[in-house]
Batch of 3 targets.
Target 1
Amino acid sequence: MSVGQTTIIRGENIRTGVTAILPHGGNLFQEKVPGAVYVGNGFGKLAGSTQVNELGEIETPILLTSTLSVPKTADFSLDYMLGLRGNENVRSINPLVAETNDGGLNDGRARHITRDDVFNSIKNAKSGAVEEGSVGAGTGTVAFGWKGGIGTSSRKLPTSLGGYTLGVLVQSNFGGVLSIDGVPVGVELGKFYLKEAVGAVGSNAQPSSGSDLADGSIIIVIATDAPLDHRQLRRLASRAMSGLARTGSSMTNGSGDYAIAFSTQNRIKASDAKRNISVLGNDAMSPLFQAVIEATEEAILNSLFKATTVTGNGRTVEALPLEQVKEILRKYGRIK
């Protein structure tokens, strides 16, 4: 698996980008991978999800970007895939493009993503450590009222449980009450969803709907080398929502909460007339469930910890004040 990112910062109001996740470095249409999409709350524009869940296959790079740039990004993904050697006679491709809305810091209406941005993200994808924070598709995102962005984490099961590796990449752009290791950090910092309504029972106080502390979205991409089929990957993806909940997400009405999962094993070749594959038994899934919950939680926190303050589109969103966070965690006995 490899990841490529293009960060777009221009003028005073362009703060956006593209993040590309490639399950392998070959022609994904000719060698598809098992995949699944799970919808926690469906307020989003995830192009290509229905075919993924119908056929259980992913056949293009997974692209993350800005909400209103999904159609353009999908079109550019088609340009890339149709141009690959071996796809000369292909007449149907299912681009998989997900989004969160970076319209607070970015002029999303102008849809600044270009063909070069998408191609560069795909062609420059590499394995190894992934740049995190205010980069790629996370350039203009906001989480819990602080600067969000791209975050990653991984887990490796012990040999006795199969030794499989699982990695998570998130594009965080959602609200709620930030919690770190069970500590109500958002409350301690005085920035959290429904703050206006606290202690206002019986009054006419209402939460500020549509704010950074309420609505928003998150895309969670899960990769594993465990041999899983579509059904198992969908089960795995659903558990990512437990990791999201651990961070204090409220999954509000206007939040698009999606998980995309794929396995790098058991590739599906276009020429396959018959496939004999081996997948894990159901009892072997539970350790992977634990792994995806932990990795999702950690990836979200890393997206906050690595983000930097960004000014754009007439506003500034501050990075999470890490020194204050450390003091709060000390107060609750989580760190010395």
Target 2
Amino acid sequence: MANLLIVDDEQSYRQLLSMVFDGENHSIRTAMNGREAMKLLQDEPADVIITDVKMPDMNGIELLKAAREALPDIGVVLMTAFATVETAREAFKLGADDFIQKPFDVEELKIIVKKALDRQVLITENRAFKRAQRERGSISNIIGHSDKMQAVYQMIETVAEVQSTVLVTGESGTGKELVARAIHDLSPRAEKPFISINCGAFTETLLESELFGYVKGSFTGANSNRKGLFEAADHGTIFLDEIGEMSPAMQVKLLRVLQERKVRPVGAHDEFSVDARVIAATNRDLKAMSEDGSFREDLFYRISVIPISLPPLRDRKEDIPPLVAHFIKKFCDQTGRDLSIADKTMQFLENYAWHGNVRELEHTIERAVALEREEEIQPERLPEHITNYNPDRIKAEFDLPEDGINLTSHLDNLEKTYVVEALKQTGGNQTKAAELLKVSVRSFRHLLDKHNIRTLSAQMRSSND
């Protein structure tokens, strides 16, 4: 049984069509013009509207346009005694299901309405199928059977149904964006856009124009209006990765958008409303940053309404075998090969600390699959720092001396050593050095200034030229 809405300013047609489709066991409502029909639609949606074109106070074409804005998938069949090619063309351009001329054959109209209802069924089934595929795909992309990951899955499913802001925390490479995508795909916003941006990859000025857009002439090079990512994510989800890298000035502007739900493009005078759910992510301790003043406390509490913490791979070693199997299949499928993994190789992988987490493991398996020429991946295909890794030896190196240490000074020296070593390995290339240390370029440059070694990068580059 379908819900039909019959709209015609002539009572005789309303009565005729009500009798015809009531006999088809449909639920029937009637209206004498488009404005009355829209009020009925606000109370209860319809599956199909059967409407006359020529009516006072809102004609059929205007009703078609208004109904499709409110209910994009609603079926609309137009009737008219004054059919023209131009009217029919406009009706189909606006998305009418069909067009019939008065006086009409009742059986023909029944067939037209049935086709419109069949289209509704196909749309519903297709949406359900796509949603099921998305849900399976999103969760299956996050590999892990450990108790800690099961808790993450439960949290994803729980928060997907609400609209609150989510903060995903975890070390680099733990899969924060995968979690954000899963939340979006399981949410009522799944049919709308998922927009992702890395806040640490842009300067303050560029980040503002990326997020909020700009108007023509607002700065040099702004030759036309440009829509921002918040507007692009309207009714969907925007994922703000590495939000801890955002400058204080941008933090203020973002806080205002989150509070007011309004965006003002760069160079514009007017604001407009946006409805985008925000999911933020960081590998930094925003709580500590808010306490020392480097991150706004009010913004921290605004984005961390629902926190989700991802465990590092070293804390869920039982997930390494299924992750390895997943990545081997992924890279073998790309090359048409069929590889397994030697027991000894798996032992090395399970023993390693994986400071780069799942991303590091994925790159390791990609390398091993590319290099292996046998049927099993051998230990020789692993990098030496993995096969030579000895947690007992590393622990001994960090044993405290009896007289203790100056922890702050020791950590500063250790940090500086890694920064210098990263520059050495990359020939002074700051971008590549930042990638080695799993930090943003902005954070890496902060470390250079902190340890007063910014000139070292230039010296190493010039020595390699």
Target 3
Amino acid sequence: MRWWRTGAVAAGTIGAAGAVTVAAGAAAYWAWRRRPGSFSLRDRAVLITGGTRGLGFAMAREFLAHGARLALCSRSRQECDSAQDQLAPFGEVFTYACDLRRRGELAAMADAVRHRYGFLDVLVNNAGVMHVGPWEQMTEDDYAEALDVHLWAPLRLSRYFLPAMQARGQGRIVNISSIGGIVPVPHMLPYTLSKFALTGMTEGLRAEAYRHGVRVTLVCPWLTRTGSQENAQFKGRHRQEFAWFALSGSSPVIAQNPEHAARQIVAACRRGRAVLVLGLPGKAAALLHGIAPGLVADLMAQANRWLPKPAAQGERARAGAESYNRITERLVRPRVRRDKARYNQPAA
């Protein structure tokens, strides 16, 4: 029995030493991750797609607070002009109206930014679209639009600006995915599919660009109170779809504050973090999905049972602004309109 006790003591010692080593390594890793950012944004040229409204607009203000020079793009010339009027007192702002789904317009915008600033230090791929409704009533055009905006535009802009960043040995690319790019969200399949694609592209691009001094950051925000619900597209029983979507996205209890999110994103950009998941519910959902993806998939399937059923004639998309009912008119509209005014969202 003496040999057994000796072996047990040895095993315990080795196990304790291993635990201490793992703990020390984890502590060192977290200390490294939280080190002060060395990438100053003062006088850096920053392009934010979809930066004229919503979370992009909040990020624009935060980048300006750090002394950056901004380029913002949007489909709407009116939104560009409004954003420039509001942001110009705080720093240099250049805006360009283009449709990122169109390769020619995207290339022209990228050329204009390069002509304005000479080179780009930070690319923030933030532009987004949302299609909400049962998968049966989504068309291939819905998936194509989501992929064009969430995957192909970030990839094309990265291919345009990354070589110069690599040649200079520094730069940042920040891709705004979503918690829906980690955890599948029912009734948002085009969004989920395209955000999962962006998540994979971002992590793969980071692995390739890192050795050249360029840091690529994946950001997965939780629900954010930007007033964007009226701009989303709803199919099927559009008023019922809008109700669950808008109520959750406008709640101060559930949804996060855009300024807080913008501060964390800019800090992650400066530090060159690999992944930033925003919001405590988002962190919990991402952690659970990482540990038990099958369980999360089953939970989402159960949640889908509570969502509206497909409509007989539900293929036509309706904007959120067209989808209020008596309850959401009273409970949601005041919050949404307040948030829209704060984050330069267009009037319905």
